[in-house]
Each structure stands twice: as C-alpha cells, then as structure tokens.
C-alpha cells in the first residue's frame, strides 16, 4: 500500500513537532485557566458542553500524538498531517473557548479569542469527518468523482466560513450558544454583509457539513467493500466505527437537535455519544495503525 521508508528517511517533519507542541501548550493553558477560576464553561450550558473541554482535550492530544507517530514512519503521509491538524485546531479552539468565557480574571482580547473559537469549531469538523474518511488509509481518493465532490464541498464550506467569520453582529456559531458569559460582536465584521443572512448561513453550514460527513462515511464503506486481504483488515475497525457510531450521532442527535428538538443536546445520552465518538475516533485509528502495522 505504501512504500517502505528507510531509517535515514524516517524523521518526523519539524513542523509536526511544532504543531504537537502547540496542542500541548494550549491544552495545558486551558487547564491552567480552569484551575485559576475560569470554569464558566463547566457550570453552564448543556451537559455535553460542560464535559466537552475534558473530552476534547483527550481527543486532541490523541490525534496529535497519532499524527506524529504516522509522520515518523511516513513523513509526507496525508493521514498523519490530517491527524496533527485536527489536534492543533482542537487545542486552539478549546483554549480560546475557556479564555473567552472567563469572568474570574481580567484576561485581554476576549473578543479575539471568542472569534477564534467561533471560527475554529466548525472548521475542525472538515478534516475529522470529511477528509479523513475520504482518504483513509492510503491518502488517495477512490476515484476522480470522489475527489471532485470533496474539492467542491471544501470550497463551498470555505466560502460559507469566510462569510460567517466576517458576519456583523454577535457571534453565534450555527445558531448554538457558545457558552460564553456574553456574546461579543464580531471584531472582523464587514459592514456591507447583511446580518439578516445569519439564519440562512447557519442552516447552509449545517447542511454542507452533514452531507459531506455522510458522503465521506459512504466512501469509506465503499472502499471497505471493494478491498480484500490486508487492506480489508486495516479498514475494518475504522469503517465499522464511523459507519455505525458517527452516523448514529449525526442522525439521532445532531440533525434532530439542530432542526427539531434542541433539548436533546442536554441529555446524558448525547453527552455519552459525543464522548464515545470523539475519543473513539483516534483510538480506533491508532488500533488500526498499531495492530496492522499500517504506515
């Protein structure tokens, strides 16, 4: 599947170590702020929101470490870079969230860190649920059609995110509460963009992310059905996990909560499925990498 790498070639790119360091620093800083009294995100909002800093910090660290391990074996491998990017985006995202919500300390740049969290939150979902399933395990698309769909989806998502990142008015990502003590106005707003498009923009982002995630999961299932032998074994864990757990989360919780019954986000079942999904993803990929000597 991949060409063997000699010991001389087997060296992790320095930028991967740098990104891992950013993940470690932002995660440690987040816990430092919580220990110093910035615990508003742990006491308000939905149950899944209150537990998410701990759940996602574990997920982010696992993704970053897994990415560095893959890049040590295969320095240019796409899957390794996707893992590292997921980890560093998550680390920045959750530090910014705790920083923005802190009322116990006179922290600077609250609006800026709120904007970072506001933007980074949906962007992290693209490599995690869109690109990873499309490219796993060899870093190649199944066919030019799958590649074209991914490029169109990423381009459309990028355009929507740019508008979201510059939309005037209070920053409310996808219509959901960020868990902040207050919702600051967008510091990078472009005044000529009408605020009235916010609801349409929010719905459009949700639809694009859902469709991209479903199609990416479908591509992984197709890849699994077409594969055989060692490749089939390498895909088995990830394909089963993604097609069952993640799709259950999207259908039974995310879609229902976004469009029909938002109270479901405050249920123990939703908090459990979120924890299982986001911690389970890097664990399952790690099992695949280590058990089947992938990469």
If you had to describe this structure to a student in words, what would you say it looks like?
The chain is mainly alpha-helical and 295 residues long. It is 71% helix and 0% strand. The protein has nine helices and no strands. It has helices at residues 14-35, 40-43, 47-73, 78-101, 110-135, 144-165, 198-226, 229-259, 268-291. The chain is globular and about 55 Å long. The protein starts with 13 loop residues before the first helix and ends with a helix.
Short description:
This protein is mostly helical and about 300 residues long.
Structural class: mainly alpha
Kindly state the percentage of residues in helix: over 70%
**Tell me about the biggest sheet?**
none
Backbone shape: globular
* Oligomeric organization of the protein chains: single chain
**Average of pLDDT:** 84
SSE ordering? HHHHHHHHH
The percentage of residues in β strands lies in under 5%
Low-confidence stretches: 174-178
Per DSSP E runs of 2 or more residues, the count of β-strands stands at 0
Count every helix, treating DSSP H or I runs of 4 or more residues as helices.
9
Cα-atom Rg, whole angstroms? Answer: 19 Å
Cα end-to-end separation: 8 Å
Key phrases:
295 residues; mainly alpha; 9 helices; globular
């Amino acid at each position: 599947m991949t060409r063997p790498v000699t010991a001389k070639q087997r060296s992790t790119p320095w930028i991967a170590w740098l990104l891992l360091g950013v993940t470690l620093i932002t995660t440690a800083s987040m816990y430092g702020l919580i220990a110093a009294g910035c615990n508003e995100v742990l006491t308000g909002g939905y149950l899944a929101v209150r537990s998410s800093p701990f759940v996602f910090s574990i997920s982010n660290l696992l993704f970053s470490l897994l990415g560095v391990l893959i890049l040590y074996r295969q320095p240019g491998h796409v899957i390794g870079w996707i893992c590292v990017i997921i980890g560093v985006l998550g680390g920045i995202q959750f530090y910014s969230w705790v920083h923005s919500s802190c009322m116990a300390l006179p922290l600077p740049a609250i609006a800026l860190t709120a904007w970072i969290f506001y933007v980074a939150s949906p962007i992290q979902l693209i490599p995690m649920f869109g690109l990873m399933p499309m490219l796993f395990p060899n870093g190649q698309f199944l066919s030019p059609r799958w590649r074209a769909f991914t490029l169109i989806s990423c381009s459309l998502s990028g355009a929507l995110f740019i508008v979201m990142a510059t939309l005037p008015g209070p920053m409310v990502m996808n219509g959901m509460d960020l868990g902040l003590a207050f919702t600051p106005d967008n510091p990078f707003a472009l005044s000529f963009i009408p605020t009235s498009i916010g609801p349409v923009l929010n719905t459009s982002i949700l639809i694009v992310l859902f469709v991209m995630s479903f199609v990416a999961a479908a591509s992984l299932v197709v890849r699994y059905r077409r594969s055989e032998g060692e490749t089939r074994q390498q895909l088995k864990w990830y394909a089963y996990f993604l097609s069952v757990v993640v799709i259950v989360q999207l259908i039974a919780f995310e879609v229902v909560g976004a469009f029909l019954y938002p109270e479901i986000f405050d249920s123990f079942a939703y908090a459990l499925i979120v924890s299982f999904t986001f911690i389970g993803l890097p664990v399952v990929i790690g099992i695949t990498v280590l058990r089947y000597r992938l990469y």
